[in-house]
Amino acid sequence: MMGVAVSASVALSGCATQHAAKWDEKVTATGTVDAAAAGDADSLWAQRKDEAKHMEAIAKWEALAATSADAVLYAKLSRAWYFAGERAAFADKNDKRDEAYQKGLDWATKSLKLSAPEFAKSMAEGKSHAESIVKAPKESIDAMYWYASNLGKWAAAKGFATRLRYKDDIKATIDHVKSFDEKYFFAAPWRYLGGYEAQTAGLAGGSLDKSEENFKKAVELAPTYLGTKVLWADYLCVKRQDKATFEKLLKDVVAANAAAEPDIEAENTLEQEKAKMLLS
To answer: CA 124, CA 52: separation in Å to the nearest integer?
Structure first.
């Protein structure tokens, strides 16, 4: 049913909630990751279509992270908690959703402290996010992307004012990711920009035409990632009240082979469930 967008709509609130990243605090763990234990956790993550295995992977990774200083491990945890947040959001478990995005944000922050120390230092000195993020190297691309993704969903859950507060920080981060790799995580920068332009159209300088261009580019670069068409329908088609395209995109998603890209079968399966809900 094409009404108010499930993902795009947020409740208005009077003031913005602030995320306290504490960039001046050091990562206290000093050890190295146990390769065998990490391999076990990675194997569970590969089976994350089963939610129990997804959460078991997180538990094992967090046990390793408690004593290990490893930016890659922390970024994996940020992505894993993001997906937990997506699952909770779809199930209307708002407390679990908010907790998951917060944890994803916290792990990405830790990862950035290790992989992008000049960025963290600049933030700790009180400089703007936009000024600081350009100091982050390509090696921190995973941490940057999952930081932005978790921050965006965390802010949206807090209300309209909080989303506005962080929209420029998030866009600056995604722009920096795109400067390194436009195809990163199945063309995620283009997908994000499609959503950004749709959400800010008529409000903060966004363009529905640019939104469509960006979504089309994301589909062109990564046609097997089903979430792009779901966002396109949910954000842009709802804004345009374009029912025909809305239904076509979502029916394409439902009819697609979620396992066409084995590495994201779990994510694609969830996107198909979202598409069915939006069509109902």
So the answer is: 38
Overall residue count recorded for the chain in this entry: 280
Give the C-alpha separation, 14 to 30, whole Å: 42
pLDDT tens digits for 125-176? 999 999 999 999 999 999 999 999 999 999 999 988 898 899 999 999 999 9
- 201: β partners: 206
**194: closest CA among 239, 158, 155, 248?**
239
Neighbouring C-beta atoms of residue 214, cutoff 10 Å: 25
Structural contact between residues 199 and 155, judged by C-beta atoms closer than 8 angstroms: no
Largest pairwise CA distance in the chain: 55
Residue with tokens 């120390």: 117
The structure tokens 């068409």 sit at 229
pLDDT digits (tens, 9 = 90+) for 89-125: 999 999 999 999 999 999 999 999 999 999 999 999 9
In this structure, are residues 124 and 24 in contact, taking their beta carbons and an 8 Å threshold?
Answer: yes
Burial of 194 (0-12, 13-18, 19+ CB in 10 A): buried
One-character DSSP codes across 171-182:
HHHHHHHHHH-T
